[in-house]
User: Fold Asp23/Gls24 family envelope stress response protein from Proteiniclasticum aestuarii.
Amino acid sequence: MSENMNKTQGHGVVKISEDVVGVIAGIAASEIQGIQGLHPTLTGGITQVVTGKRNVTKGVKVTVGEHDAIIDMVVSIEYGFKIPEVVQKAQVNVKETVETITGLKVSAVNVYVNNIYVKDKETKEK
Assistant:
């Protein structure tokens, strides 16, 4: 995620890094009840282990086209929540938040559920 998205404004060019869009998307997704967290993709997780660098956009990949952006994210859902409803809310929130904050058009938010999070009994009883 090193490419920048350029927008020409009245006073010059504004460059928005894909990493910035990824952070915004990750925060927007985690605001949704039922999303337990984001998870690194296989390559992102391997990179983090090998380099030791923390990836703030773990679980989020932004692909830039000529006129739009596509956001792919890998999430964990809390047990007991309806997956289609949680994912739809996350998609809407991510799209609206990224478009509002960056001014970029988001053509798709693809959400991949790779885990169900179950709270342990101690956590439930507290």
Notes: Residues 4-118 form a domain with the Alpha-Beta Plaits fold (CATH 3.30.70.1350). The longest strand covers residues 106-117. The beta strands are 4-9, 12-17, 35-38, 60-64, 69-78, 106-117.
